Amino acid sequence: MDFIQILGFSAALLTTAANIPQAYKIIRDKSTKDISALTYSMLLSGLILWIVYGIKTDDLPVILANSISALISTIILVLKFTSKKNLENLHDSVSKTS
Predict the structure, then answer these.
(1) Percentage above 90 pLDDT, the chain
(2) pLDDT, averaged across the chain
(3) How far apart are CA 39 and CA 24, in angstroms?
(4) Number of domains in the chain
(5) Residue 66, by phi and psi: left (phi above 0), alpha (psi -120 to 50) or beta?
(6) CA 98 to CA 78: how far, in whole Å?
(7) Is 1 inside any structural domain?
(8) Distance (Å, whole) CA 91 – CA 29
């Protein structure tokens, strides 16, 4: 594996994992008050375009990294529109398994 491949994999790993702390914080704090639905909608739209680009160029790393990122962003958007009661139930469920 050469430097450019390592660079690409590192970028994919970091950008894919970047939203995990936000999802964790939402569940931990039981609040999406400070989350921008517009920002995550734009992010999700861009990720979907990257997935289409990856499919059209047959670029598996681009497809995989952006698919995982899109899934995490979708979860955050769903949480944004989830009721406070459901967030509390999710928090309680996650807390019991920890």
Answers:
(1) 53
(2) 90
(3) 18
(4) 1
(5) alpha
(6) 23
(7) no
(8) 8
Contacts 24+ apart (CB under 8 A), 16-19: 16/65, 16/68, 16/69, 16/72, 18/69, 19/69, 19/72, 19/73, 19/76
Contact between residue 69 and residue 40 where contact means Cβ atoms under 8 Å apart: no
Could you tell me the residue range of the domain that residue 72 belongs to? 35-91
Confidence of residue 2 (pLDDT cuts 50, 70, 90): confident
Q: Which residue has the tokens 């995490």?
A: 72
- Indicate whether this model's pTM tops 0.90: no
Residue type, 76: I
Cβ neighbours for 53, distance < 8 A, ≥ 6 positions apart: 59, 62
Q: What is the Cα 8 distance to its own chain's centre?
A: 18
Tokens coding 94? 């996650």
Q: How many helices (H) and strands (E) would you count in the chain?
A: 5, 0
pLDDT of residue 89: 85
